[in-house]
Every structure is written in structure tokens, then in C-alpha cells.
């Protein structure tokens, strides 16, 4: 009871992306179980600017810093607050949690049975009218007004058919809509009077109705699994049971309970019909296509992802999705709502890691193995910042199998760092190997070209291969990445399984490297990205290696986005360089001779990639493939974006089903399977080796 005193004081409250954080005067009213806030202390005697009922609320310290915490009310409303320091946050959090627990337990102890007080809150009645006593004969179905969606009586179906399961799914969708209407009707009740929105029975009804719908969804899933097992014996091997895929998307569950019928083919937008009518990938040419860099134009697309509006508007969808997930659950096959997508494919995101081609090309200009390893570490650590588009964590499109992305960068030779005391034009004998040219007598350009290609080589598991090369500098990088995502409660973790290898052909060196894990934190408030885990870079020929740690923020104290690492010579175990800082801010490199170098990533120049116009791209190139989804997201039309996205995913499922039934293996276009990894079909090390052999024969 000593901790139940009223407390008050100033806190910062997050309003929106435009207004940001604002100081407000907060009062914890323990007797009423309310958290109220005012513009300032002087206006405390006036009506509060906002009030949260704490019964049933969840108080959560944020993992983004030591000052922030959130108050999530049972009504779905949320306050994101920030104290002046960690001690003050702990004071507010502990007092709020005590008050919340006290009033939540009081509801359970003092709440009379619901059947003695039942109110008709059907959407067709007035939300402000007093409750009407329910008749004893009125059952739950009539109370929720499910209406014409009723199962036929007097018949028993031995084995439920797929169409019937679709009917059940639609009935449940209707019930979910009715349940949401019920909650809205409760929340629209006045704050005072005979029947209020804070009525204990109604608060309990809100909680139990949501639990009931979750239970029904679990039962429906069990029914699907049972039916699938019954059907297995009667279907040919390799047949896919298409009806097991949900017929109504998650987003459509939140449209006032109206079951959405898919429009007839004639009513679909032309772009959707186009997406569904593209021929089978294996019927298209799978021969690798040589992309002419001269056809590529400097990219003018700038899809920054700083818009939080859609996430805030669709919070109920996120809450519903989270209620279906379990800790540690693999999210590979979970269809996420469209509004959390950023406007680019995962394949293009890998390309954006190459946005500092000057640092990439400069690696091979290092005069010693030690300097080349340090330059590679510098390039590696600066690549992740530009790979993120804005501060808001959103998810790139999942590439469909066979999807590709091509681009290139042109880097003026004068902008590439060379080694002190050396001439950039003086190359090793290996670099003097002449590669075949399409035309003779062409003047050597004053820029280097870095070409990039990526391909989605597998769907389950989702594996991407990407390759980049600079022919003039005889260097290339080949990598394959398998993305494994898991639900971690209030965050989502993505593990990048795979390996990349950088080849410096003029030095005969190979640098093998791995990738860190990524985490989307605070997914209920302002989602943000954090990198974590240990990665290693190793060059077997020179004996140099690097160990880099991406530190996740501890619960109390600590900095965000911190990274530390060291480069050492394995034979002597000598550390030749240490690095520390933030991977999205400033990095500090300290060398063995005592020199220190600072790299400010926020001021680092970014070279725009060059991409072919849409009309010159193939039907499976990322930007053309996803163009209608991207345009709809850019216009803020989430429904249309969802429709286009569903059409692409449905086409991919149909193609996969057909390949399984015909036992036709998938044919990749640019990458070949090599053990556990994937290798570009025409890597530079093979081209250089062939050119060397040809020159030797001619001599």
C-alpha cells in the first residue's frame, strides 16, 4: 500500500513522426486506476488531454534505450513515453505496474457473472443507448448476429470437403468482424452515465471475445491438418492441396467483418491479370542474359521508408498477427501484411550494400596483405548503413524463385584511393592479362564499372545468390544467403546463413566472410533495425583475419548499433588494427603504429546505381516484377498493393505445384549449385584463367 500513492511529473510523449516528442505533465491516479496527462502542470485543474485505463494494461520498458517505456491499454490505445534517465523510468514503470496489477485483480474478484448482465451492442443499434436485458432464449449466435452464414442442420458429412472449409473460414471472418464491431461499440460508449466504456463487465467481455476467436482459429487449423491427413492416401504423389492456403488474407480480416469475395477475372485490374498470365519460368528462356551497362541509367528512385502512418493505422492487424505467433516460431512461411513492406525487393537490398564502390575498388590497391585486409574491413563495415532505407524498420519483398536484379556503378578512377607511394596505373603482371573486347580501337574510359547480378535460386528454403565484379581491377565477390526469420516476442530476428568470398585476382587472394544477424525491434511502436552477432573474415593465403562483433543493446544502459573488431596476423597472433564505433554513424580505426582514422558514415558519399528502364527489363527482374506493388505502396493504396502481391504469390504457388506434379526440377539462370553454396555461372576468376591460357598458347 505504500507504493499506491499518486505520483505526477513531466515525461516526454511520442505523438507522431511529424510532431515527434513533446513534454507533457502526467498524473497517476491510483484510486481510479487511470494515467492522465495535461499540457503542463498549470493546466492540471482542467480536463485531461488524454486518459488511459490501467486495468488490463501492459507496461513495457523499451529495448531501444534506457529512458523509454510504453503503456499498452486493454482498449488498444498506447502511450510511448520517455523519462529523463533510467532511474526515473524505473520509478514510473514500477508504480504503473503495481497500479495495473491492483486494478486488474480487482476486476477479477468483484466481477459478477456475465450472464446476469448482458447488453445488446449490435452495430445496427445506437452506441450510446442503454443496454437491453437479453432474453434467456437468446443464444450466442443470435447475439452476435451471424445471420445467414450457418451450417446446414440435419446432415452429417462424412468427410468435410474443401469448399466447406472455405465456408467455415468465411464464417469465422464474419465472426471476427462482429467481434471488432462489438469492441468499437464498447469504446464509443460515454465515459460517464448508466453504461460506460470502462464498465467492468464490458472490459471482461472484450478480453474473452478475443480469446474465443483465437481459440476458434486454433481449432480451424487442427481441422485443416486432420482433413489433409485424410486426403493424403487418395491423392497422387506430389499433388498439392491448394485449399490449405488461406483464401482470405490477414488484412481482409479487419474490414468490419465483411467477407471479401475475390473479383471475377474480368473485373481484375489488367496488371493483376498480367502478373497471373506470365508463362511458366521454365517455359521462358533460362539462358543467362548479358546485360549491357550502357543501357543502364542512373537511378532516380528514392524510396525512403520514414512513413510510420500506415503502421500506426494498422496496429490492430499487427496485434492480431502477434497473437497467432509463438516464441521461436519460424516466419519463413508466414504471410505478413503488405503495409509493413518497404518498396524494394530483398535482391535490390543486397545491391544497395555496394553503394560505396570507391571503397570496394580501393581494396585491391592496398600495397600489402595487411592493408588490403584492413581496407576490406572498412568497406564491409560501411556497407550496412546504406543498405537500410530510412530509420523505420520495414521488410523488403520476399523474392519469388527465378527473380533477378541487375545494376552497375560507374566510379571515376580519380575518386578511388590508391596506396601511398604507388602509381595506380602500375599493376602486377597478372593484371596485365588482356581480356577479350567486343570492339577494337575503343578509348579506355576514365571510370571503373562495377556490375551486379542477384537471383533467387531457391524458394524453400529461401536462398539468394549475388555476384559483383570490376573487370578492370580484376576483382569480384560471390555470395549466397539463406534468410531464416524467427519471432522473438517484441522483436523479429533474421539470421543470414551463408558465406561470401571476395576474389582479388591480381594478388591471388580470397577473403571469406559471413554476415551478421538482423533484428526488427519494438515492432508495436516505432520499429527499428539492430544488427547483432559475430562475423569473421579470413584470407587463407596471407594469414590475416578479422573478427567483428555487432553488439545488441543491453536492457539497461549501453549504446545502440555498437560494433567492435580487430584485424590480426594469425601466424604471430599480432593485432594490427582495432575498430570501434557505430555501424550507422562514426567508426574509429586504430592502427598498430598509433595512427587513428575516423569514418563518418553519415557524410560518406553514396554512388547511385545504374538500372535499366522498366521497359527494357525482363518479366522476372525485380523492379518490373514488383512494379504494381511498389506503385500502390507509393500511392498509399494498401488494398491494391495487397491484391498485386497476392497475385504474384499465388502464381508462384501454382508453378511450384505444377513442378511437383510433373517432377520437373527448377532451372536457375545465373547461379550453379556448388556443394552447399551457389556460384555465379561465369565468374571473373574463370574468365581471367581462360584469357591467361589463351595468351600462353598464342605466345
Strand content: 15-25%
Low-confidence stretches: 113-158, 232-268, 276-285, 420-434, 437-441
Helix content: 25-40%
Coarse morphology: globular
CA-CA gap between termini: 95 Å
Structural class of the secondary elements? alpha+beta
**Can you count the helices?**
14
Note the main sheet.
13 strands, antiparallel
Explain briefly what this protein structure is.
With 699 residues, the chain is of the alpha+beta class.
Describe the overall structure.
By secondary structure, the protein is α+β, with helices and mostly antiparallel strands. Among the domains are: 7-108, Pleckstrin-homology domain (PH domain)/Phosphotyrosine-binding domain (PTB) (PH-domain like, Roll), CATH 2.30.29.30; 297-415 and 446-526 and 606-687, no CATH class. It is built from 14 helices and 26 strands. It has helices at residues 86-110, 140-144, 162-187, 200-232, 270-277, 309-313, 315-323, 346-352, 357-362, 369-387, 622-625, 627-634, 638-662, 684-698; strands spanning 7-14, 21-29, 34-38, 50-53, 58-61, 68-72, 78-82, 297-298, 341-345, 395-397, 404-412, 447-458, 463-470, 475-487, 492-504, 509-513, 517-521, 528-539, 544-551, 562-569, 574-582, 586-591, 596-600, 610-611, 671-674, 677-680. The strands form five sheets. Strands 11, 12, 13, 14, 15, 16, 17, 18, 19, 20, 21, 22 and 23 form a 13-stranded antiparallel β-sheet that branches. Strands 4-3-2-1-7-6-5 form a seven-stranded antiparallel β-sheet, with helices on one face. A two-stranded antiparallel ribbon has the order 8-24. The model is unreliable at 113-158, 232-268, 276-285, 420-434 and 437-441 (pLDDT under 50). Plays a role in regulating ADIPOQ and FABP4 levels in differentiating adipocytes and is also involved in regulation of adipocyte triglyceride storage. Weakly binds 25-hydroxycholesterol. Interacts with OSBPL9 to function as lipid transfer proteins. Belongs to the OSBP family. It comes from Lanius ludovicianus (Loggerhead shrike). InterPro entries: OSBP_sf (IPR037239), Oxysterol-bd (IPR000648), Oxysterol-bd_CS (IPR018494), PH-like_dom_sf (IPR011993), PH_domain (IPR001849). This is Oxysterol-binding protein.
